[in-house]
Amino acid sequence: MAEVAAVLDGIARYVVPRTLDEALGVLAAGGVSILAGGTDLMPQARAGRVRLQPVLINIRRLPELTGIERAGGGIRIGALVTITALRDSALVRERLHLLWQACDHFASDQIRNVATVGGNLCNASPAGDTLIPLLALGASAVLAATGGTRRVPLGEFFTGPGRSCRRPEELLVAVEVPEPPAGFAGVFCKHGTRPALDISTISLAVGARRDGTVLRDVRIACGAVAPTPIRALQAEAVVEGRAADAATIAAAAQAALADIHPISDVRASDWYRREMVRNLLQRALSHVGQL
Amino acid sequence: MAEAMPAAPSLIGRRIRKLDAPEKASGRTRYIHDLEVPGALHAKILRSTEIHARIVAIDTSAARALPGVHAVITAADVPWQRPIGVGKDHLPLKTDRVRSLRDEIAAVAADTEEIAEAALRLIRVTYAKLPVLADVTAAMAADAPQLHEGRPGNVAMTFDYAQGDVAQGERESDVVIEDVFRLHYVTHCCMGVSGVIAEFDPAGNLLLHSNTQVPFLHKREFAEALGIDPARIRIIQPPIGGAFGSKLDIYPFEPIAIFLAKITGRPVKLLFTREEEFLASPTRQPVLLKLRSGCRRDGTLTFRTVETVHDNGAYTSWGATTPFVMMQTISSLYRVPHCLYHTAAIYTNNPYAGSFRGYGNLQATFAVEAHMEKLAEAVGMDGLAFRLKNAQTAGEVTPQGMQFKSCGFQQCLETAAARSDYLRKHAAYAAQQRAPGPVKRGIGMASMLHVGGGAKIYPSDGCGTILKIDDFAHVTLMTGASEIGQGSETVLAQLVCEELGLPLEAVTVVNNDTDITPWDVGVHASRTTFIAGNSAIGAARKARAKILAAAAQKTGLTEEALGLAGGCVVRRASGERLFELGKFLRGLHFSDRAELVMTTFYYEPPSRHQDREFKGDVSAAYAWATQVCEVEVDSDTGIVRLLKVTGAHDVGRVLNRLGIEGQIEGGVVMGQGYALTEDLMVDHGVIRNPNFRDYKLVTAPEIPEMDITFIETLDGEGPQGAKGVGEAPAICIAAAIANAIWNATGTRIYALPFTPEHVYRALHGAAAPPAWTGGA
Q1: Residue B137's pLDDT is what?
Q2: What's the ipTM?
Q3: Which residue of A39, A193, A273 is the best one to mutate when testing the B interface, meaning the one whose CB has the most B CBs within 10 A?
């Protein structure tokens, strides 16, 4: 308790806006930390990795940031949608199955109940569980500010570990996911020391559409193997338009090694991460080839 | 007349829920964290930021000036402090030198924890760095700095044991193998973090609310450290949120809280944060072990030569003494005529190890059972037959002096093998090693010997009981034995009820106050059921005799003709109820010759302190177990899944079936964590993962199917025939999993833990096996 109090000592003002405009006005004034689920913010603040700003804004009551719905050829997921809500959504399960799978691997029930997809994106961990499938699915972040709204593809949104291109005055209000083509299917693979409640050593989201004997619209995204979540574009190119035979799969797995830049840390060595990307990508591709 | 006893059902062997279960399950238990003492100050400790350094200067002036701060102390404020711990090499507050990152430099007592923390941030310490001794190799180098005065070569402790003549044993061997094993750091991860509340009364008596496992012996330790009379110290133990051996020693935070209480004249409460718990509570002893073993062609073991080196860390606690137990497994789990054993515990700048459930036995069993498997294969025997050929049996006296009066070891081996289908599966899985596909199954076996009737590591291994029965036939059992979550209260109540013919609700157990409860040497060595159980039975039998004598006088019947059952005094032969016990006792109270039923008993087990050569029958009984683990190994990832554990445990007799099942299951999972997921990463004196995100305990989905059989050998000395079982279930798991991985893959892994990358590296030839760096 003492730690919490010490962390909160630097906060001069706590704001709970009821409308997006009100929230954007607070953000425009500067010096703001944004609180949604708090499952990343609070432990990081306590550990001294994040310094809380003088104004703490709790965005949990903004109606504009909620809901999962079809909109203009895509699916719009409000930034405040919790991981549990994603997992319980029939639309996500049926149309964004890669994302749904990731939610099933995400932390624990208690965390899933409060953690939000927007928070997961803004935390910008290279290992973030929803980031990898959303990147594979070609999603974009919707960033609002008093001056207007912009859309940034996730491939450009992440700029480094814990960093994104969101400006301090901007609020992530939603993530928009283009509806995958009919027949698109995929596999999310999270690899760690234990099957539950773990941070990925590496993770993979692999999706494609079967067209006769070949795979098209191949998407491969990797987590915890570079400063940001990344698409394995060279590996995608190897598989695109080809049958998922052993030679193609092996070539793609090899190509992926040129896409990734893993480091050694407390969870694994860079060598082991490379080995896992190669081995698990082969496994995932052969699985997708049979979906 | 019928001979049968009255039809009161026996409580022994039944599934009885723990007495404290409703309180704990409903969140009402008041742990030390929940205790609020009026007027208490809150304390925090400033730890070193250097691994090894001279302390040049400490400036506490700004901290002292902070409003709300009542005291800031450093070693200079307590010149009378004395070294603590098993090695008496550890000053609570460091004077001129820090030897590890956990080291205590200063402490603050303030109105709130927040103020105390703010004050810590205002303390300025100037260090002069010294070379870091990151491992035993560095610490044993000829030019290494000496970490403690009077400890040349940085040797903290050595142990030597010999039986027979290993050279002769080697000459008689047809097969000789030698391997080096490396066992890693893990830590207890008690749900309740460490804490203490210290308070002096105006007369100078010290009251401690403490989570200690050893209240009576620690009174003396505290008194020595503080220079006060032990008789003026009272220790009350609130319900303890897990201990597992971690609270068997005293640590600097405890004297520091006492110093602050003395200096401020106020109660002082000190609680660890979770991170502090990782950094500053003890670990399991990391061990590098070289084992050389041999056998004859017919499978008879001939000799074992063992050398181990323990990274002692910066100070000496119980971890250094784990050879006491390691050498028992090496000399006496199987019959080995010739053994030579040597250990050196070497000071380094790393964290230091304490006592931890199993106490060196996990480490020794890991090596011994790997060699049992390798030797069996070398002589072409199956692992079961090879073990059975060398397994101890009842009646044996080992060269180390242990006397196995009851011994269900062979039955454990046969039962676990049969119930797990070990022989068939082992052959089938071995045949599949080279089959296509990355996922392989394997099955592995390991067995253990552990003390089960106390452990006479002090001149006494006893426990006292005071028992009173009030005027409503309610029993208060005051026992010296501490409850640390293991369920001892329930078992002791059961044993007493069994003697007095009372229901479980008739007993209150008082076990947490040194001013009330009689002496005991602590909760450790799986001793509480056995030692405190026999003590409780002794007191209950005396009470029973007293009641029956009074009843005989009243009825004119003989004492032998009377019994206690169903809350009544009964005719022993027929079970006929003569009178209700409460009413009878009230009669004894309200009389002009009042005779209250209050008894005492002190039980001392018939074990012997080891001699200087580490020989002696150190326990009154010994526990045995065989565990078979079945695993799935994914060679593409290195992930090992534990699918099933089949265990057979010689527990003497099951007292509380629900309790013992819980204890076995918990121990299995603790052993699983040691084998597969837990790894306290110590890198050049720094713990890299002091949190539950990166220190990975086993979670619910990984817990395997368990099939546990209890082998009831009815030990002649045990309470109702029972033996201790607290540590046993954790001991074999890592060893059995190592053998299962070998069966699945053909790869023998000599170092723990079996986390995915370690296993993957081993399977793909990308890891060097452990090398002996312990010197000649």
Answers
A1: 96
A2: 0.95
A3: A193
